Amino acid sequence: RRAAGEQLTTADVCGEIVKPHTLERKCSYVHALPAEGIAPATFYASHAWKYFFADVVSALEQAVGDDDGIWFCMLINNQHETVSMTYEFLEGEF
Q1: Which of 14, 50, 52, 72 lies 20 to 30 Å (CA to CA) from residue 6?
Q2: pTM surpassing 0.85?
Q3: How far is CA 86 from its chain centroid?
Q4: pLDDT (tens digit, 9 = 90+) per residue, 59-88?
Q5: Phi and psi at residue 39, in whole multiples of 5°?
Q6: Strand, coil or helix: 1
Q7: Which residues pair with 70 in a beta bridge?
Q8: DSSP code of 34?
Q9: What distance in Å separates the CA atoms of residue 89 and residue 25, rounded to the nearest whole number?
Q10: What is the separation of C-alpha 61 from the centre of its chain, rounded to a whole number of angstroms?
Q11: What is the chain's Cα-based Rg?
């Protein structure tokens, strides 16, 4: 159990929030959300799994506008399938 206020990395958010939320449907987080409010991506966000998630979100809030869509791989890619992706796949467009 985490201490109150303990920062989560993007890896923590993926493992503790994204994967459990999408486990039943085995889909991406975006596909588990209602379709309204999901915008086409106008920005691609690259991150390291060890970054604090709150810092990533804060940086994105400063970098993009309210109407912009962000391709954030942790939320767009089906995290239940990423373990089977080859290096070549991850190296290219996904």
Answers
A1: 72
A2: no
A3: 19
A4: 999 999 888 889 898 998 899 887 666 656
A5: -105, 155
A6: coil
A7: 43
A8: -
A9: 23
A10: 15
A11: 14
